[in-house]
């Protein structure tokens, strides 16, 4: 596992010399209140029921997202339900037995199959075997972009050619032109497609953000491209101004989204990582306040087998470094250089 301290800026490494009392951490949630990958108020009851083998609340939740065309929420719920089914799948088996052609159970089943295949050394071969499940999910609800997001991930795993991928991409954006999950899948395909693709990834992400509304999650896509640069260790080939502009877009989006809410937590945790690597401590502290008690496994599981502990350590270091600044230290978040280093 990668050593966190080797990846983070000097202000965090040296800040450990000073530890303020916990009560000075104004505006931050107490350590014992921070939750990892907490479900929101809609998903939580569905997971509790699924743990008892009851699929009914999960079915009602996904039906509501489909009927209301809540594609971003639907995508997130499908991924979380499939992850839960990977270890406790009785409820999904019951659901499939009860409603084998239901578009929602088809979708969760396809996501679970791709997730399982992805973890295997025989990934490409197993992914090809699950293609019929993705096709069936795509036929379940013609408006839904989420099966196409799964298909885009599947194409990356099977190393599908660009022509086929472009056909999938066209089908996805025809259904939802600014669906964040599909854009992330496309970005990851670009990053995996050839060596040193970060310029192309930034071009794609910036064009998508420019075309989307100010409150669209796609505004966070350039920061996702920046995350790829920072974690792949190719920062010297990317202008600092481009990395900062990507972070700025995501910051603007973050301030538009509900504070201390599990829905934007994943985007904010990745943005926090980017800001730390760019040595933008004041901006990082702002995001910590907006994150509140909602830590996410990714990206902290890239640095530690205990992502919650990693998040708390990083959070403490950021706040400690801020308090340890000498009087008159400039408050600009744009200090230092980017340090080199996806899910």
Features:
2 strands, 343 residues, two-stranded parallel ribbon, mainly alpha, 1% strand
Quaternary structure: single chain
Q: How many beta-strand segments?
A: 2
Helix/strand order: HHEHHHHHHHHHHHHHHHEHH
Question: What general outline do the C-alpha atoms trace?
Answer: globular
In this structure, how is the largest beta sheet organized?
A: 2 strands, parallel
What does this molecule look like?
The protein is built from 19 helices and 2 strands. The protein is globular. The chain is an all-alpha fold and 343 residues long. Helix 17 (281-291) packs across helix 19. The chain has helices at 4-7, 10-14, 43-51, 56-67, 71-87, 90-98, 103-118, 123-129, 131-140, 146-157, 162-175, 180-193, 198-211, 221-232, 240-256, 265-277, 281-291, 297-300, 307-323, and strands spanning 35-36, 294-295.
Quick recap of the structure?
The protein is built from 19 helices and 2 strands. With 343 residues, it is mainly α.
Protein topology:
Blueprint: H1 4-7, H2 10-14, E1 35-36, H3 43-51, H4 56-67, H5 71-87, H6 90-98, H7 103-118, H8 123-129, H9 131-140, H10 146-157, H11 162-175, H12 180-193, H13 198-211, H14 221-232, H15 240-256, H16 265-277, H17 281-291, E2 294-295, H18 297-300, H19 307-323
Parallel strand pairs: 1-2
């Amino acid at each position: 596992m990668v050593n966190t301290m080797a990846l983070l800026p000097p202000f965090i490494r040296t800040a450990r010399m000073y530890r303020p009392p916990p009560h000075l951490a104004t505006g931050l949630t107490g350590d014992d209140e921070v939750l990892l990958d907490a479900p929101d108020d809609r998903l939580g009851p569905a997971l509790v029921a699924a743990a008892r083998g009851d699929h009914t609340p999960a079915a009602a939740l996904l039906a509501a997202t489909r009927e209301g065309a809540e594609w971003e929420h639907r995508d997130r719920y499908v991924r979380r339900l499939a992850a839960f089914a990977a270890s406790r799948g009785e409820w999904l088996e019951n659901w499939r037995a009860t409603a084998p052609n239901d578009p929602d159970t088809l979708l969760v089943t396809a996501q679970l199959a791709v997730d399982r295949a992805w973890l295997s050394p025989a990934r490409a071969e197993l992914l090809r075997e699950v293609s019929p499940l993705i096709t069936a999910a795509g036929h379940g609800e013609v408006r839904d972009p989420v099966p196409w997001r799964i298909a885009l991930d599947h194409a990356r795993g099977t190393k599908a050619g660009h022509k086929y991928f472009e056909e999938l991409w066209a089908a996805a954006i025809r259904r939802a032109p600014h669906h964040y999950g599909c854009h992330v899948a496309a970005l990851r395909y670009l990053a995996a497609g050839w060596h040193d693709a970060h310029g192309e990834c930034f071009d794609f992400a910036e064009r998508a953000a420019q075309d989307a509304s100010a409150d669209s999650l796609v505004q966070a896509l350039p920061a996702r491209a920046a995350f790829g640069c920072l974690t792949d260790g190719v920062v010297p080939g990317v202008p600092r101004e481009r990395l900062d502009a990507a972070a700025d877009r995501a910051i603007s989006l973050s301030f538009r989204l509900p504070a201390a809410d599990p829905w934007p937590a994943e985007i904010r945790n990745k943005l926090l990582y980017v800001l730390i690597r760019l040595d933008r401590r004041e901006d990082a502290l702002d995001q910590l306040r907006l994150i509140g008690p909602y830590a996410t496994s990714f990206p902290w599981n890239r640095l530690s087998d205990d992502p919650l502990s990693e998040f708390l350590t990083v959070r403490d270091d950021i706040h400690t470094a801020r308090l340890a600044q000498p009087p008159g230290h400039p408050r600009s978040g744009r200090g230092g250089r980017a340090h080199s280093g996806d899910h």
